[in-house]
Amino acid sequence: MGDFTYKNGKLYCEELRVQNIAEKVGTPFYLYSWNSLIQNYKAIDEAFGDLDHLVCFSVKACSNVAILKILAGEGAGADVVSGGELYRAQRAEIDPQKIVFSGPGKTSEEIEQAIMQDILMLNVESSEELMLVNEIAQQKGVKARIALRVNPEVEAETHPYMTTGVKGSKFGIPISQAMAEYEVAQKLPGVEPIGIHQHIGSQIVKTAPFEESVEKLTNLAKSLAALEIEIKYLNIGGGFGIPYDDSEVASPEDYGRALTPILKESGAFIVIEAGRAIAGNAGILVTSVLYNKQSDERNIMVVDAGMSDILRPTLYHAEHKIAPVLNQEDAPSVKADIVGPLCEAGDFIAIDRAVPRLKKDDLLAVFDAGAYGFSMSSNYNSRLRPPEVLVSGRKAYLIRRRDTFEDLVRNEAIPKDL
Ligand code: LLP
Fold it and tell me: Looking at the whole model, is its pTM more than 0.85?
């Protein structure tokens, strides 16, 4: 749980009581620990310390500019997948030479934006994209540094929605076609192929799929060297899992230990695109109880956060730990469906979960919500996206205010004939 700990039954984030923050900003809200972010980043950085490497924080996991800036201060780069994320990375003053850009559907505008900012490299995901990058770079009179994102066709053994490196996936170029694509790329005047990229999936809990795919990548690099295509960078993507429950999950050290020998032999500079393993346990979502009711045999606890605030339970049936912000030792436990206020049957945070019997206004913490929490939130049901608060020691900073009603309609226009 990182820097979220109970002292005398009260939940703290670093040295501040979560309840006190809730009283100031209201619920629901996201709360992050500055120290956890840094420690998690360092754990990955150190795990690959025997290699020339760069850890690029995967911006999609937690995109707040303040958080990006903290990580940039530690030396992190950024893995971006849209013009918007590239803009955020720029706002956080991340060195463009530490930015990589993936995504199967980059637009011309995004490619141009990346080329003009002179980012480290574009991770190109198809032969058509390769041609477009070449064309745009030539128009701009530059050579774009690229990696091809290859699909190594390994089973990442995670949720199907988080599996990105199997046969038939929409991501990358099948590894069987990679040699031919590199040969094409090598001859194009507007691109310089300098790397190989993979991202096989997310919330991977064992090192084996990585060992298998990284082995394939280094073999590809060797075959390319024989064609005088020099691969200077191997980007192994992200995907390191975190323990959402008490099950065994490989740690950054495990990944470092397993992959370093394979990667070292390649002699390449290594890029790692970690998201969840940095931000996941560094954030919680705090929500309060609105109502308790019974539906047939089920206990229903309605809270003030729902799928618009945290989508993971609805989208993946993800199970986040949930516990009261004030632990009442003697409170009787019940099994309840913890549900949000949205008008969607799929709007739940947990199903049939044992929780203490809580009453209106009691606070609950949803743990391990720092990654893919706020960044996947929406205004569905015209709900106001929650604020984000960052804690360092005894200090709390509001790093994003709660949406207002005005925010909801800001970009809308009423036709003047109406
Ligand atoms: N690199 C690329 C190209 C990616 O697509 C992703 C995540 C990452 C790196 C970072 O992966 P991580 O280290 O965080 O596992 N929304 C989902 C996960 C989907 C991740 C998509 N790509 C969730 O809530 O679990």
Answer: yes
